[in-house]
Amino acid sequence: MNAKRDITRVAVLMGGFSSEREVSLVSGRDAATALEQAGYDVTAIEVPRDMPALTTALTAANPDVVFNALHGRFGEDGCIQGLLDMMALPYTNSGRMASSLAMDKAVAKKLFSAAGLPVADNIIVSRDDLRLGDPLPRPYVIKPVNEGSAVGVHIVHAGDNPPSLDELDFYVDRPVMVERFIPGREITVTNLGERPLAVTEITTQRDFYDYEAKYADGGSDHVLPADMSAAVYDQFLDISLTAHRTLGCRGVTRTDFRLDGDDIYLLELNTQPGLTPTSLVPEQAAYVGMSFKDLVSWMVENAQCDA
Question: Is 122 a catalytic residue?
Fold first, then answer.
């Protein structure tokens, strides 16, 4: 990858057309502002569902690097990465294969399990299967296989009514993951390339760390560094880096966990974690002495493509 002095023009992709569009707009605008402050010539591009228009905008911008601030489907599942690879444009974070693997929770969990990493019991079912009754003993979690930011996640506790048809409408024509609910502490770790940064514990008054808890002011509290023994702390760092390597990731990733007593469970790995004012990645970067401007500059300087 070129050194920073050879990188002048950066195109920031944001918005898109997934369920996480609004979060992406915040991530993208903040990243664009910080990159301008760092001295880059920045072009912000709101991504339409029109590939000829997008390729025209990218060609006009003629960037040295594309900063991918998209979240959700089509932005972090390998689709946009494939387009950028075809255009031979270096971009931030993981390539198309790692992005696709991480976004498919079922495949990612199989790979994690094969690598000896601890994951919760889970099965893949259809919406119609869910209507027939409990697919696992309660409590369990219902989640889309290929969404982020806890979009569409439901927890079914003992004594709850079955999920309503309105709730299940989100899953029409999509596979559904049903996973054993893991009680305990919500934990996350950021990786910058081969460097796991820190361990954060997340607490919230909501039922779990859902969309509102992630992005609303006051939706959650972050304990950084998490209060735990040095041995357990280091174990989280090691598992996060192993998960990053297992999927072949690069750039920034964030790995989410549950800690139930002494038992660690890897929930998922995010290849396009949020960069909003309430997001965990900028917070962990600041904890290790890296400003937001330094963080996004690092991402640009380490951009690659698989052309």
Answer: no
Pull the structure tokens for residue 144.
């889309």
pTM of the model: 0.88
- Catalytic residue list contains 254: yes
Catalytic site includes residue 126:
no
User: Catalytic one among 147, 254, 279, 297?
Assistant: 254
Judge whether 149 counts as a catalytic residue: yes
Contact between residue 92 and residue 67 where contact means Cβ atoms under 8 Å apart: yes
Total residue count of the chain as it appears in this document: 307
Residue 62 known to be catalytic: no
Question: For 108-117, how does the pLDDT look when each residue is reduced to its tens digit (9 = 90+)?
Answer: 999 999 999 9
| pLDDT tens-digit series, residues 124-171 | 988 778 778 889 999 999 888 876 545 668 889 988 877 665 555 555
Q: State the Cα–Cα distance between residues 188 and 13, nearest whole angstrom.
A: 25
Question: In the chain, what are the domains?
Answer: 4-92 (3.40.50.20), 101-119+183-292 (3.30.470.20), 122-180 (3.30.1490.20)
